[in-house]
Design brief:
This protein is of the alpha/beta class. The chain folds into two domains: about 5-95, Arc Repressor Mutant, subunit A (Orthogonal Bundle), CATH 1.10.10; about 165-345, Vaccinia Virus protein VP39 (Rossmann fold, 3-Layer(aba) Sandwich). The relative contact order is 0.09. It has 16 helices and ten strands. It has a seven-stranded mixed β-sheet, with helices on both faces. The protein has a three-stranded antiparallel β-sheet with strand order 1-3-2. About 50% of the residues lie in helices and about 15% in strands. It binds S-adenosylmethionine. The site of S-adenosylmethionine has 16 residues, from loops. S-adenosylmethionine (SAM) binds near residues 188 and 256.
């Protein structure tokens, strides 16, 4: 091979500096650069943007140049002046007022996930999440740690909510759910998937089951009372009785928990489920040999720093479902981040 001095470790340098890109995007959103450009409705100079966001001219110039390099801003040269405008993608996903905005998720990444990842080495060594080091809160009760303030709760709910605008329809149509009229979305959070269900399947009703403060926040900020096919049920799915339903949805629930807790939850669902009913798992599936997708491998590390769980393969989910009593287990890859796994409770013979 080439002598070591001639080698250029392009990939490794990119990995080493990957967080510079994340931070550039976080800061641009936090300062509201894309919002200022949206409101202006015309390209602006660095000076105008720096004044509008209340930041130094020098710092803003460098930030704008980096955003242009990242293809989030378009550079215009006008009579010797440099002006900036949003790319289409930035306008749709990085402005706060857009219905497809990722700003709240980006804020959660910036203020919460990024801080947990600071302790990734400790997480790997200890094999557990890092709330105590990152935020000084006990992680004995996972969701008590995650919901340590109302502000954290709302940010988390926005994070959960936003992805279903992008890939909710795919997971809800991965299997034909039209036979199921009474649906219970366990850990249904902001109701984003419940809304997708009622939009796609006109005959169903959906109950969102979640912890009391999540239900209250969801009713206040996310689900309009006008949507009569969506109702709420406050409770703890590990302790309280579960509503009777034809179909239980568990979207991004099992990845929070150990196998033991998952089996316990699935057994409780199996008992509550009507014969002929089913459970739909919505998760990012790892390849059978664990070889990818990279996003899911990274999510599994994120589950380590943030939760008690992990990402799993479809066979691992099938094993959990089988242990709890479910049969006829099938999975469907959607081609987007989240996939679907179905398991059925046999009809009584
Ligand atoms: N299903 C939603 C989604 O995919 O957008 C939210 C997933 S979030 C990772 C986990 C959800 O489970 C949160 O809404 C949380 O409040 C809820 N949860 C956690 N522990 C719970 C419990 N013991 N009983 C009921 N809900 C719980």
């Amino acid at each position: 091979g080439a002598p070591a001095a001639d080698l250029y470790p392009k990939k490794i340098l990119e990995y080493m500096e990957g967080f510079l890109i994340s931070k550039t995007v976080f800061t641009s959103c936090e300062l509201g650069v894309f919002d200022v450009l949206l409101k202006a409705e015309q390209p602006l100079s660095a000076e105008e943007i720096s004044q509008a966001v209340g930041a130094s001219l020098d710092g803003t110039q460098r930030l704008l140049a980096a955003c242009a390099g990242l293809q989030l801003l378009i550079v215009h040269h006008d009579k010797g002046q440099v002006l900036y405008s949003n790319t289409e993608e930035a306008r749709v996903f990085l402005t706060r007022s857009s219905p497809l905005s990722l700003c709240q998720s980006i804020q959660y990444s910036s203020r919460t996930i990024y801080l947990c990842w600071h302790y990734l080495t400790d997480a790997v060594r200890e094999g557990k999440n890092q709330y105590e080091k990152a935020f000084g809160v006990s992680s004995k009760d996972l969701f008590q740690a995650m919901y340590r303030s109302d502000e954290e709760l709302v940010k988390f709910m926005h994070l959960m909510n936003s992805i279903w605008n992008i890939c909710g329809k795919n997971v809800i149509t991965a299997f034909d759910l039209s036979p199921f009229k009474v649906i219970c979305d366990l850990g249904g959070c902001s109701g984003a998937l419940a809304k997708q269900c009622t939009a796609v399947y006109p005959e169903c009703t959906v109950t969102i089951f979640d912890l009391p403060k999540v239900v209250r926040m969801s009713q206040e900020h996310f689900v309009s009372v006008a949507d009569q096919r969506i109702s709420f049920h406050e409770g703890d799915f590990f302790k309280d009785s579960l509503p009777v339903a034809d179909l239980y949805i568990l979207a991004r629930i099992l990845h929070d928990w150990t196998d033991e807790r998952c089996i316990k939850l699935l057994q409780r669902i199996y008992e509550a489920c009507k014969p002929g009913g089913a459970v739909l798992l919505v998760e990012a599936l790892l390849n059978e040999d664990g070889s990818g997708p990279l996003t899911v491998q990274l999510y599994s590390l994120n589950m380590l720093v943030q939760t008690e769980g992990r990402e799993r393969t479809d066979a691992q989910y099938a094993a959990l479902l089988t242990t709890a009593g479910f049969t006829n287990i099938q999975h469907c890859l959607t081609g987007k981040i989240y996939d679907a796994v179905m398991g059925y409770k046999r009809h009584e013979i």
